[in-house]
Structure prediction request, 1436 residues.
Amino acid sequence: MPKRTDIRSILLIGSGPIVIGQACEFDYSGTQACKALREEGYRVILVNSNPATIMTDPEFADRTYIEPLTVEMVAKVIEAERPDALLPTLGGQTALNLAVRLAETGILDRYGVKLIGASIEAIQKAENRQRFKDAMSRIGLAVPASGICHSLQEARELLAIVGLPAIIRPSFTLGGTGGGVVETREEFEAKVAWGLSASPTHEVLIEQSIAGWKEFELEVMRDQADNVVVICSIENFDPMGVHTGDSITVAPIQTLSDREYQRMRDAAIAIIREIGVDTGGSNIQFAVNPANGDMVVIEMNPRVSRSSALASKATGYPIAKIAAKLAVGYRLDELTNDITGTTSACFEPTLDYVVVKVPRFAFEKFPAADPTLGPSMKSVGEVMAIGRTFKEAFQKALRSLENGRTGLDPRYTDVDEIRRKLRTPTDERPWLIADAMRQGISIDELHELTRIDRWFLDQIAEILDMEGRLAQAGKWGLSPELLRAAKREGFSDAAIARLTGLSGADVRARRLEAGIRPTYKMVDTCAAEFEARTPYLYSTYESEDEAPPTGRRKVVILGSGPNRIGQGIEFDYCCVHGVLALREAGFETIMVNCNPETVSTDYDTSDRLYFEPLTLEDVLEILDRERPEGVILQFGGQTPLKLAKALEAHGVPVWGTSPEAIDIAEDRERFRTLIEELGLRQPPSGAARTAAEAEAIAERLGFPLLLRPSYVLGGRAMEIVPGLPKLQDYMQRALSEAVDRPVLPILVDKYLESAIEVDVDAVADGEDVLIGGVLEHIEEAGVHSGDAACSLPPHSLPEPIVETLMAQTRALARALRVVGLINVQFAVQGGTVYVLEVNPRASRTVPFVAKATGRPLAKLAARVMAGERLRDLTGGAFAPRPTGMVAVKEAVLPFARFSGVDVLLGPEMKSTGEVMGLAPTFEAAFAKAQAGAGPGLPIGGRAFLSVRDVDKGAIVSIGKSLYDMGFELIATRGTAAALAAAGLPVERINKVLEGPPHIVGAIEAGQVALVINTTEGDRSIADSYTIRRSALLFQVPYFTTIAGARAAVSAIGALRRGELAVRPLQDIPVA
Amino acid sequence: MTKAYLALADGTVYEGEAFGADGERAGEVVFTTPMAGYQEVATDPSYRGQIVCMTYPLIGNYGVNALDAEAARVHVEGFVVREYTARPSSWRAEGSFGDYLRRHGVPGIQGIDTRALTRKLRTVGTMPGILSTTADDPAALVARARALPGMSGQDLVTGLGPEAPVEFDEPDGLGPYPPARRHVVAYDLGMKTSILRQLRRAGCRVTVVGPRTTADEVLRLDPDGVFLSNGPGDPAAVPGIAEEVRRLVEARPIFGICLGHQILARAFGARTYKLKFGHRGVNQPVKDLATGRVEITTHNHGFAVDPQSLPDDVTVTHVNLNDRTCEGLAHRRLPVFSVQYHPEAAAGPHDARYLFERFMKAMER
Ligand SMILES: Nc1ncnc2c1ncn2[C@@H]1O[C@H](COP(=O)(O)OP(=O)(O)O)[C@@H](O)[C@H]1O
Ligand SMILES: Nc1ncnc2c1ncn2[C@@H]1O[C@H](COP(=O)(O)OP(=O)(O)O)[C@@H](O)[C@H]1O
Ligand SMILES: [Mg+2]
Ligand SMILES: [Mg+2]
Prediction:
């Protein structure tokens, strides 16, 4: 059956901001879907609140709405656009939940919008744990014993049936937020309480724990004619109990015989039929008892998922694209396999390589968080690697992580410590296993400790055998045969160097001398049975290379590796734009990246895709064969920039700003000199290698100070230090961490209090400088620019200051001879402008500025790097482009994932993503940004105010505005006194320490609509911690800075006036 | 570590490491693409006369067990893999795959670029080769490989199957079979055990006969239907059988699989021809032309039926979606049909198992 003609326009919902459990994989799937649907001639209407996505580029849809993903706002889009259909299965859990609510509230019916892809019935059958369980028993499949409860009392009754250990899982949450395995009654009660609150339906599933069983996933596709195919099978290295998102996973399945696999396949097909997913992809998870093969079903996601993205990258099969085509009526057998161009899309890909995904965590950002891995996802990103053996793929994946390791680097030697640490799964597990083997712990014991399948443990043991051979051979005994054998097992040059005592350069030299070079093979969906035409490549040490470089003019763009806090989708966006711009300019574009979630690693984004680690070794091998005209490093964040000097030393033509200029910007001393030469200002500062040096600097500058280690991204380990004791404490921690590394100096800056922070993004061509946008932060300097909300254009800065900021940016860009992107961060303190830092590279805000102004900064930068002039590209317009709209960016923070972590913001970046609010006024834009990023602002109710002494003056005007808008005010004693003194009626409420009834009780009881809480000093931070934490968990909007609170109050005014209208990007005038 | 060589008739030599038995074997070198099921492949009699390259690189992971064998012995001539795992991990494992090959006297080679080999076979076509763990002169191996005959014209069926009719009743690991409602005589041309198990599951009593059995001998066993099995080699070279089948066509419902399908086609006077590199794997899309549904199916064949050469009263019922080759045929009037692929799967998906039911229905009419 060909495509449907009864629908012409389709609404697609994106997945919103990047959060743990929902990252750029949904930009990848949404972008594919947009392309696929437009290719078929449908009018595509897209809603997503995340400006850093490729899918929200105005070229990808007919109508692009960057709006909060709420029922109200999407209803407005539906009202304005009257789409014929809604496709909800490509925007993750967010889109699916929203579609359900749009249906339940009658909006879809009212406007005659048909759901395509999956029906409400199917979605609910899959998502509602009880209905899913019933469905499974109807088709004779086992699920773990379980029950649903809505209260603690019900839970206690259930426990009698399910028994301990049990697993607690709230319904309808992302990535299992709130879930966990409990062993004792106390743990049980606590987890249930938490789960009840985390579930939007206040519903918790209590289930028999089968932690330790083998965990598997199948990616299944179905068309409306009921053809079903399995695209990919995945085996989890970490057994049941560790969320698949946090597990190392391997494709295809390694340890099941065909008989067992087919049984699982039969079950998967029966499930997709029973649930009734009409068309598209689904992800189904299974557990298998390793002792007897018993199989149970864990869950089904009736939509494209994180694993689908992985499966697409692992097989080459474009799941999202095909899902979109199936949704509009095509059948699988009517579609062609893109990779071969000749065979059918109705088939099951077969691999002739092994794919390993390893998650990347960010526990270093949240020292208070528990790093134990469990059923609720905690990782922030992932890498994937492809090799011809598990060993090769695994080691490639480990070095792709960019955690400073070259492979299975040793760390622990104390046997007891290793045993203890292995008992609970953490992000360190692969390295601990290797350490354990080095200490002689047997595979059997390791299997007992970790329940990881012996097959995987054996593979690691084989890697360690090779490690032993290398170490034994040493410098002198490293024969070409041994070197080749090690390379075939995936050892990096750096790891071989570490083991043999040679330098990395020596290993490379010997390798080249012996002619041991990687070969490149294609990911082709069919194990070479048919010829492939898409050069999607991976390296391996084999005999045949099947993808000789072309003779075209070409550019290599290095990607940004795994997502992490501080380096996420924004950089992938820039890479993709670089590719698009240079393809347009006639270059062959070559992408190198190892992040399976991204658009950049889609096989049809660039002309050639190398799915490879971004280490010097792997990159050099590619550059050596491709010999491109240029290599672009500045789009991928710190990952490629780290390689700048080394690549230049190898004679690689680095395009854009020179590595030398990058060094000037990153090196404090050289940068200071530059600032002085330009007559600009910087916060006074110093650098200390010892505690004594730091104290001397403190003496000179006075407190508060801002301390940080050299060379960091995302403000890692940055702290504001109010006085001497904290300074000593910081230095002690910093120096002890640096024991095994050369001591880089600790940078000490004067902390500028009450300063307004500003980001400026620009593009330069060595002569002209185009200012993309000036972004005024809402929170004052001291809140990391990645975590601060900001406004474009500036909402309060006087015009002359904005002019100064632009002039300084131009001066800096010229002085550094920037070719490409530059981002400058300023602090404006009482009319004085300080330069905080200069990043001569893509910044996190580039996509935001591009969306807000309609100017594709990254594309311009790419063209400039290729030698074109800004003058010619823009016709000489170098000032920010006015649009009549205000764009507000708000950060999204992962605190809810990490119990025990405070929500206060500081100079260390903690957010995972962002949303944009776009409106004619700052107030309305801010209100939209709040609605997009969190629970949204209330228009009435009780506002709780509790502020530190310095803010007591400011809180009065905030309190008055709230009171005037009809809010009831409640406050802790001091704040209440301040408000009362100003004549405002206010009710005093207890702090927690003062005893019940207290504020936390009121929040939990749903009696508080808004929390404003500023605090300082360890003591009061600790005292008020539970207030912020409970606001977070009970989804009460909270503000921890006065600046944020002020903006919120003005936005509430806009909300009350009903000012939120929707408008697509395509309708925003571009000057 | 023992060295092993795989020498091809075109002069290519791959050097790897030996596993399995020591020795030297010749055969047509072919590749197959399933990611699991190496034991089923090794024991599938259709691979007689062939050295099989597994495109999936890691082989041996879950060991071997009695239930997964498709025959009592290993039929491949040699096994070619990228990496063999000697230490299996599975509750089902009764031993390692390497030991299994050794017990059956079949050599294996590991450590070679199996993708390069596959690409060669795809572009040049399958060709004769020699796998040796004992030779030390690869040039001599190549010379001998060059002298080997091709697969066309080779009868590899004669000598297979039982001497006298035997009843099949081996378990399939899924509990007792249902009571038999119909009696099938199955020509064993190199039959996979799974086919017999499927016939038993469908409710048949099965009597297995050898390839030399005449139509009269079959009819004397008083079957409700006749089954023609899969098997190795060139269908055109199996002596006499097409004539016997022609006589059975009017007499009883017939169901054929793979070689059985080709022989049925030949019985109707159709032509069979050799494919460049065959279909071997478990992911081939086949469309049932009657229902429009697509089945993902298991394949293992180097020859195919030329649909143009079928007589008018025989129609093509299934086609391969990748290359449009004939995957199934049926007589317009008579309850006689066959498929080129393997509905019994093993290894592979179960999408086409309905065909055993269809055969049952044909016999019940
Ligand atoms: N009954 C159980 N016993 C032990 N672990 C479980 C059980 N059910 C789920 N898990 C673990 O929790 C993880 C998350 O559960 P899942 O149902 O897949 O939820 P999500 O929607 O978060 O993916 C699984 O990947 C698995 O490791
Ligand atoms: N001297 C300072 N006074 C006040 N705040 C500062 C100062 N220096 C840095 N900050 C704050 O710290 C944040 C991170 O510092 P920055 O130098 O931009 O590091 P990163 O490289 O992590 O972006 C800034 O966004 C700003 O809010
Ligand atoms: Mg899951
Ligand atoms: Mg910064």
Notes: Chain B touches chain A through 54 residues (CB under 8 Å). The radius of gyration of chain B is 20 Å. Residues 280 and 300 of chain B are 4 Å apart (CA to CA). DSSP finds nine helices and 19 strands in chain B.
